[in-house]
Amino acid sequence: xxxxxxxAEDHGLTGSGLKESLTTLxxxxxxxxxYCDDALLKxxxxxxxxxxFEVLITDLSFKADYKNQNLVSGEELIVETKKxxxxxxxxxxxxxxxxxxxxxxxxxxxxxxFVGKERRDIYExxxxxxxxxxxxxxxxxxxxxxLRSSENQLELDEYDILLLKLLTKGLKQEEIxxxxxxxxxxxxxLRSIQDRLGKLKTIFGAKNPVHLVAQAMERGxx
Amino acid sequence: MNKPxxxxxxxxxxxFESISHKGxxxxxxxxxxxxxxxxxxxxxxxxxxxxxxxxxRKINEQLLVGDTIGAVQNLRRVAIxxxxxxxxxxxxxxxxxxxxxLEEQKDxxxxxxxxxxxxxxxxxxxxxxKLYEKALSYYESALELANDSSDSIPALNNISYLHLDQENYxxxxxxxxxxxxxxxxxxxxxxxxxxxxxxxxxxxxxxMPEALDNMQKAMNIRLEANDLSGLYSSNRHLSNYFxxxxxxxxxxxxxxxxxxxxxxxxxxxxxxNALALLLxxxxxxxxxxxxxLSDSLSSAKQIQENKYAVIKYNVExxxxxxxxxxxxxxxxxxxxxxxxxAFLLAVVSAVFIVxxxxxxxxxxxxxxxxxxEARISKRVHDDLANDVSGVMTFIENTLITxxxxxxxxxxxxxDIYLKARxxxxxxxxxxxxxxxxxxxxxxxxxxPKGVDVITSPxxxxxxxxxxxxxxxxxxxCLQELLxxxxxxxxxxxxxxxxxxxxxxxxxxxxxxxIGFKVDNIVLGGLKHVETRMKEIDGNFSFESNEGKGFxxxxxx
Lengths: 222, 556
Prior knowledge:
The structure holds two protein chains of two kinds. Chain A is an alpha/beta fold. Chain A has eleven helices and six strands. Chain A has helices at 12-23, 36-48, 74-84, 99-108, 119-122, 124-133, 141-152, 158-168, 173-182, 190-204, 209-218, and strands spanning 4-8, 29-33, 55-58, 89-94, 113-116, 154-155. Chain A is elongated, with a radius of gyration of 26 Å. In chain A, 38% of the residues are buried. Chain B is 75% helix and 6% strand. Chain B is rod-shaped, with a radius of gyration of 52 Å. Chain B is mostly helical. Chain B has helices at residues 6-22, 29-40, 45-64, 68-84, 88-103, 109-128, 132-145, 149-165, 169-186, 189-205, 210-225, 228-244, 248-265, 268-280, 285-397, 403-427, 435-446, 468-489, 524-535, and strands spanning 452-455, 493-501, 504-511, 539-544, 550-555. Chains A and B meet through helix 1, helix 4, helix 5, helix 7 and strand 6 of A and helix 15, helix 16, helix 17, strand 1 and strand 2 of B. Strand 6 of chain A pairs parallel with strand 1 of chain B, so a sheet runs across the interface.
C-alpha cells in the first residue's frame, strides 16, 4: 500500500473522515491540508527531502477565505502537481456529479480516480485508493453507467434523416438506393439502405416503413 | 429710333474696354476682335449673320468648359448686335440669358461690371420698346450696382433720357444737374461736355436761359478734344434748339454739321438721324408730308412688330413658366420624397433602437438571472453539499452509536445532500462553448438505465449563431425535461430532434413513457420551462396523455 498520502480538503470534518478511512488501508503517513497552496508546498518539500507523496486525494472546490491563495481549485492544484511530480496518483473526491466534467478530469487532467461525496460513494474511497495503488484507473459504478450512456446516445446522421424524408415521399428502397448512388452519397447500395432502414426501424420501434415514418414525424425528426 | 443714344455707345465702349483689359489670350483672338467690330459697327447684314454664328458657337464652347464670364461677355455682344439690327426682343432675350448666368456667380468686380452693363442694356431695349416703367427699373438696378459717383453716371444719364422721352423735363433737369456736378468733381472733360450738353438740351426744353450757353460750352470742349461723336450730338441738340426757336437757318447749319460728322464717323444710324434732322427742317411741304408719313409708318410698323413680338415673347415666357413650374414640381416631389424617406428612416431606426434596447434589457435580465442562479448553485454545491457530506463522513467513521440509528441518520443526511445537489445542478453555470458536447453530457447525466436516447444531428442547428444566454436557457429547459422523464415517465425511449426552418429553430423532445393528464400537471418543472423560454422570446408547448408518452416543443 501507499506509504505517504496527501489530502487536500478545506472541510474539516471531511478531511478528518477521509483520514480515518485511509488509515484503515494502513497508509502510514497521511497529511491533511486545507488549502491548495499548502498542498503544493508540501508536495515540493517532500520531493526535496527525497520522500515524495505517492497519492493526492483532493476536493475540487475550495472556499475562498481571508487568505489569498494562488491556486483556488482542485483542478489547478492537479495541473501544478503533475508539472513537478508527473507520477503522482490523483484521486478526486468531490460533490461534482456532472458526467461531462468528470469525464474531462479523466481525459484532460489524467486523474486516476473520481469518488463522489454521496453516501454510497463514501464507502468507495478505500476501494478507489486500493485500485489506484494497483495501477488501475477507477470509475464508480454510477459513473460507469453515465459514461457508457454518453457513448450510447444515438445521434442520427444526415443520411438517416434523408432516408426518412425519401420514405415520406413514397420512394421504394431501390429508388432510395438509386437516389443515394446518383449523388455519390456513402452507403448507397440497396443492401446498405436496407441495413440503415432496419437500424432505424429498431431505433424507433417501428414494425414497417410506414410506421417508421409516422414515428419519426411524431417525434419531430422529419 | 430717331434718337440714338450716345449713352448707349458709352456703354458699348466700356464693354470694349473690358475686352481689351481681358486680352482674350485664347486662340481666336483675331477672329474675336473682328466679329466684335462687326457687331459694334456693322457694315452689312451678312457680316452680322456670320458674327452671330461665330458668337453662338463660341458661347456654347465656353459654357461647355465652364467659362461663364466669357460666355456672358459674348452674349452681351450678341445682344448689342441684335439691338443694332432692331431685333429688340431677341436682344432682350440674350441679355436676360446673360443675366441668369451671372446670377449663379459669386460677386466680384468683373461680374458687377457685367451686370450693370446688362441692366443698362435692358433699360435701353425697354426704352426703345417704350416700356418706360420697366426701363426705369433696370436703370435703377444698374444704379444700385454703382460703386462710386463716376460709375453711376451712365445709369443716371439713361434715366435722364428716359425722362426726356416721357417729356418729364423737370425730372430730367434735376438728374442732369446732378450728373454735371458729379462730372465736374471727376474732372473728366469729355464727361463734363456730355453733361453740359445734356443739361443744356433739357434746359432748352424748359425754356431756361442758360440752355444755349451750356450747350455751346459743351461744344467748345468737344471741339478742343476733337470728340467727333460728341460734336455730332452737340450739333444735333443745337439744331433741335434753334429749330424749336424758329431759327431755321441756324438749325440747318447745325444739322448739316451733324450730317458731316456722321459721314466722318461712318455710322449709318448717325447718318440716318442726321438726314432725318435735315428733312425735318425742309420747307418743302412734300418732304414734310413724307416725313410725317414715314414716321407714322415706322411707328405703325414698330407697333406691329411689338405686337407680334409680345405674342412671341409671351409664348416663350409661358413655355419657360411651364418649364419652371415643372422643375419646381419635380423639385418639390424630390423634396417630398427626401423628407418622407428621412422621416421613415427616422421612424424605422427609432423603432429599431427601441426594440434593440428592449431586447438588450431582456437579455441582460436573463443573463443576470442566470448569473444569480449560478452563484446560488455554487454556494449550495460548495457549502451545503460539502457540509452535509462532511457530516456523513464524520458519522460514518467516528460516531459511535447503534448501527441502525447511524444508518437512519446517514440516510436522512444523504437525502439532504442529494436535494442540495439537485438544487445546485438545476441552477449550475453552463459552459456552452461546445454546445452539442454540453448537451450530450447533460443527457448522459440524466440518462436512466435501459433507456434509448435518440437525437437528430446536432448540427441541424447552427449553434455558433445562437446567443450564449439562449443556449444556457435551452440547456436548463432540456435538463428539466430530462429530469421529468427520469423521475416520472418510466419511458424506455427518449428522442430529441433539432430542427431549423426559415429562421425559426425548434427542439422536439419526446418520450414513450406513461405520460400524464395535461390538466393534472403535477410537474411544476414545466412551468419553469415555459418561463425560461418566454425569457428568450421563445415558445414552449407540450402534449401528453396518460399512457401515450410526452412530447414537448421548444421554439426559439
